């Protein structure tokens, strides 16, 4: 095991930080925080857990930051982080995880779709010795059939394509043990498909089935186009299968072309060669042109990501950091 990772002893660490990324969630946060606070109170009492909450304002345009500051003034366990602009959920979560000083991390959505009341179950699994406890959605309320169907398909496709195990129907609702957390923090790639990164880390995994509830307030921040891009990000980040497909399609085409060429020669020798075949020629040219562009586009997807990676820009920029009261303000 990597020498930088804390050993199993770290699992006895009683600290747990609930990490919530919020983008335009001013309506949902006042509903969520009391639920988290109640759970943390119970955990402190029953299991001796030292709970904290870390909210990341991912460049919200509404009153999210003001709401968060109000909440933080009422509860000394709350830490706040604001990014310089909207970097997206994956970067916001990364920022949050980077700012946890010690202990385990519990990731939740701000909209209440991942019920905080389940946190004690996650903690129990962590105490049993699991490093990555993730919630698996048994049902999704308040989401369209199209969204459920495409999500279902996506998890199946990526499960087939990627060599990294990515559990199906599992989002970011999960608890990471201290060593899983510090392992994850070593992955600094720009292509941040968190579900895949969690899977890459490995260690002992446990899954907790749950009913995904409807949003408490506001609307989903992900439209079809954003999800489509996230899916491409996931596939290109965790599989080179599309490149291999291009190779095989090329091989198959070359083989067919060879057979077809041989047939043309034979035909010309047997029956002569009157000029004909414009339709075949057009069909072949267009087909090959299309295939080449698809292969080039696939190559471009990977090359573009390589370019992003090569620039080595930071994953996010911090605008404001307000540690929980009574906690040292040292940044990790
Ligand atoms: N989110 C974020 N940055 C973004 C988009 C979303 O931090 O650019 C947060 C959002 O506030 C919420 C979580 O990510 O806490 C999940 O977003 P949402 O509920 O819109 O996604 P869905 O549940 O519809 O997949
Ligand atoms: Mg949601």
TrEMBL record:
Stretches that traverse the bilayer: 245-266, 278-303
Main localization of the protein described in the UniProt heading: membrane
Keywords, sorted A to Z: Glycosyltransferase, Membrane, Transferase, Transmembrane, Transmembrane helix
CDD domains to which the protein is assigned, alphabetical: DPM1_like_bac
Coiled coil: none
Single Gene Ontology MF annotation: transferase activity
Domain of life, source organism: Bacteria
Localisation per UniProt entry: Membrane
SUPFAM superfamilies, per the entry: Nucleotide-diphospho-sugar transferases
InterPro entries from the UniProt entry: Glyco_trans_2-like, Glycosyltransferase_2, Nucleotide-diphossugar_trans
Ranges where the Glycosyltransferase 2-like domain occurs: 17-182
Membrane disposition: Multi-pass membrane protein
Name of the protein in question: Glycosyl transferase family 2
Organism listed in the record: Noviluteimonas caseinilytica
Taxonomic classification: Bacteria, Pseudomonadati, Pseudomonadota, Gammaproteobacteria, Lysobacterales
């Amino acid at each position: 095991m990597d020498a930088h990772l804390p050993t199993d002893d770290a699992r006895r660490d009683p600290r747990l930080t609930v990490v919530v990324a919020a983008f335009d969630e001013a309506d949902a946060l006042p509903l969520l925080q009391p639920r988290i606070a109640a759970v943390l109170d119970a955990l402190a009492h029953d299991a001796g857990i030292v709970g904290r909450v870390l909210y990341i304002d991912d460049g919200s345009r509404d009153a999210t930051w003001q709401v968060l500051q109000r909440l933080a003034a009422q509860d000394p366990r709350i830490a706040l982080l604001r990014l310089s602009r909207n970097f997206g959920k994956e970067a916001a979560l990364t920022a949050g995880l980077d700012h946890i000083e010690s202990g385990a991390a519990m990731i939740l959505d701000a909209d209440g779709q991942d019920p905080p009341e389940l946190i004690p179950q996650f903690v129990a699994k962590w105490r049993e010795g699991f490093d990555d406890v993730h919630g698996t959605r048994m049902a999704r309320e308040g989401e369209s059939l199209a969204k459920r169907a495409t999500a279902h398909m996506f998890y199946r496709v990526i499960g087939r394509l990627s060599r990294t195990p990515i559990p199906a129907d599992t989002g970011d609702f999960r608890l990471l043990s201290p060593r899983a957390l510090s392992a994850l923090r070593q992955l600094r790639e720009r292509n941040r498909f968190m579900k895949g990164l969690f899977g890459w880390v490995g260690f002992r995994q446990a899954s907790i089935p749950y009913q995904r509830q409807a949003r408490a307030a506001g609307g989903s921040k992900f439209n079809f186009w954003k999800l489509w891009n996230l899916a491409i990000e996931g596939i290109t980040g965790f599989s080179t299968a599309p490149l291999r497909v291009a190779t095989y399609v090329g091989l198959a085409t070359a083989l067919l072309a060879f057979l077809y060429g041989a047939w043309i020669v034979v035909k010309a020798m047997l029956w002569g060669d009157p000029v004909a075949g414009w339709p075949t020629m057009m069909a072949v040219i267009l087909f090959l042109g299309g295939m080449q562009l698809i292969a080039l586009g696939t190559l471009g997807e990977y090359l573009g990501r390589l370019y992003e990676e090569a620039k080595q820009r930071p994953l996010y920029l911090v605008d404001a950091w307000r540690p929980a009261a009574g906690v040292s303000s040292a940044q990790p």
